[in-house]
Amino acid sequence: MKAQFITLDGIDGAGKSTNLAVIRNWFEERKLPVLFTREPGGTPIGEALRALLLNPATKVSLHTETLLMFAARRQHLEEVILPALEQGVHVVSDRFTDATFAYQGGGRGLDFKQIEILENWVQQDFRPDLTLLMDVPLEVSMARISQTREKDRFEQEQADFFTRVRAAYLHRAAAAPERYAVVDGNRDLAAVRADVEAVLCRHFQACAY
Ligand code: TMP
Question: What is the pLDDT of residues 80-116, one digit of tens each?
Fold first, then answer.
């Protein structure tokens, strides 16, 4: 099996961080070569753009915000993701282009077709092999965000914004079920963990049952 590009996405507060640790353990236990990275970010210029994009003091138009997400992504692809995959190292990215469709498209209302144009230009036909979509009801997401001490520019958005973000994620997952695994994050940790592990086992056919 060629090296796989796996992404983890979902609304803020869906439990991505906890499950990144589960995914990390899963790869470590099997001694599979893997690189963990994130978006926006993953490179020096990407992390600088991340700081700007997440800073609540930043004033930026929707088109510029979208272009900066894709600028960070292009650098991430050239500098980190594609070289790792070429060397046979699996890559797990904490967010990728689904987040642009969900946040800039669903949340902020940018036409999905315009995002597709950028996706095709920046990535050509490169897409994740597997996307784990962490999903929780809006109330759970909002409750978790409210516990965050310093909210970033996106976390400061209101409930209706996150309703649209979540709907866009679920819509994308329903349209391409072969690529997405939707994980219900609104259960106890052990149940969520078992689901995430089962998804990886299925994808890699790497577990004895
Ligand atoms: P996080 O890494 O803590 O999830 O924060 C990243 C934030 O950036 C999150 O609120 C989602 C947002 N984001 C977008 O709006 N568009 C994108 O394309 C990406 C990658 C992230």
Answer: 999 999 999 999 999 999 999 999 999 999 999 999 9
Show me where the domains of the chain are located: 5-204
Question: Which residue owns the Cα nearest ligand 1 atom 18?
Answer: 100
**Rounded Cα distance, 148 and 155, in Å:** 9
CATH architecture for residues 5-204:
3-Layer(aba) Sandwich (3.40)
120 in helix, strand or coil? Answer: helix
What is the residue with the minimal CA distance to atom 3 of ligand 1? 12
Q: Which residues have any ligand 1 atom within 6 Å of their CB?
A: 12, 38-40, 69, 94-95, 99-100, 103-104, 154
What is the torsional sign of CA 173, 171, 52, 149?
Answer: negative
Identify any residues that bridge with 181 across adjacent strands, giving them in sequence order: 132
CA distance 104 to 97: 10
The pTM of this model reads 0.97
